[in-house]
């Protein structure tokens, strides 16, 4: 599904800077004893990859922590960082590590406060009968990539495997070019495109999850402005904890409440797509693998961020002297965050 690819859409930095107008009004502080309102902007239309947040709303995980959370559904014209920078929402979803690192580069006062996905679900998809057993085997083959992907995970692929820009072909959010040429490789999400390709064309594709090959980026991060982190850290903590609890429930418990809200927001979503995506989230350990096994859902580490920045800066994406730690805070992702 093309919707997953668009998650990597480049941050419109110029628009962000303009959006940070000093004339913007901040939301009024709630009266004592009333829930704290959090508008949370997602990165695309409602789907299982956002299921934990919907589950947390549906099962009252936010409400019992004193929050009134409204999920603001994303779409093709929605720029989450811009909404955050303008004060239109209190929190937003960061699709990948480049999003928040780009904000830090431009001194935009927004930070990642948690990462709901320890593994970025990004994959490369190939035809099954081409003798391709590892990512390195894809060197030299044409690869369909969106413009945003060329400035994101492609940087890591070039660094680690020596892929070259002459392999890049324009991805038009359509699987037809991939299906018509067995040599072609396509980008996608492990929770989406492999299933839709098999469903539509009967082709069980070869799938390479970048995270399982060492890609260090986080995904589905919770982004919040520095002003809210400073003004109301208790609300930030409550949102992180409620989200983690929602994800745990969505993956391990009865997902029906979250699925119902997803389908209410996005009537085009079907149950079979939700079910297979949730199964992939579980089987690949997208949410609860790695550091999350000991640190809890949402955990981030300095080591992971340092590794990500090293790769990106060595490829010229960021200045090596940049203070990349402006992009995130570990204040809210202690092991207790998933409890």
Secondary-structure map:
Layout: H1 2-5, H2 13-19, E1 36-41, H3 51-58, E2 67-72, H4 80-86, E3 91-96, H5 97-105, E4 110-117, E5 122-126, E6 143-145, H6 147-150, H7 153-161, E7 168-170, H8 176-180, E8 185-189, H9 193-201, E9 206-209, E10 219-225, H10 226-231, H11 233-252, H12 256-265, H13 271-283, H14 292-295, H15 302-314
Parallel strand pairs: 1-2, 1-3, 6-7, 6-8
Antiparallel strand pairs: 3-10, 4-10, 5-8, 5-9
Helix pairs in contact: 2-4, 3-11, 3-12
Q: What does the model show?
A:
This protein has 339 residues and is of the alpha/beta class. The protein is built from 15 helices and ten strands. A five-stranded mixed sheet has the order 2-1-3-10-4, sandwiched between helices. A five-stranded mixed sheet has the order 7-6-8-5-9. Strand 1, helix 3 and strand 2 form a beta-alpha-beta unit. The chain starts with a helix and ends in a 25-residue tail after the last helix. 50% of the residues are buried. The N terminus is likely disordered.
Q: Summarize the amount of helix as a percent range.
A: 25-40%
Specify the structural class.
Answer: alpha/beta
Shape: globular
- Total strand count, please? 10
Q: Give the radius of gyration.
A: 19 Å
Report the span from N to C terminus: 33 Å
Main sheet attributes: strand count, strand direction, barrel closure: 5 strands, mixed
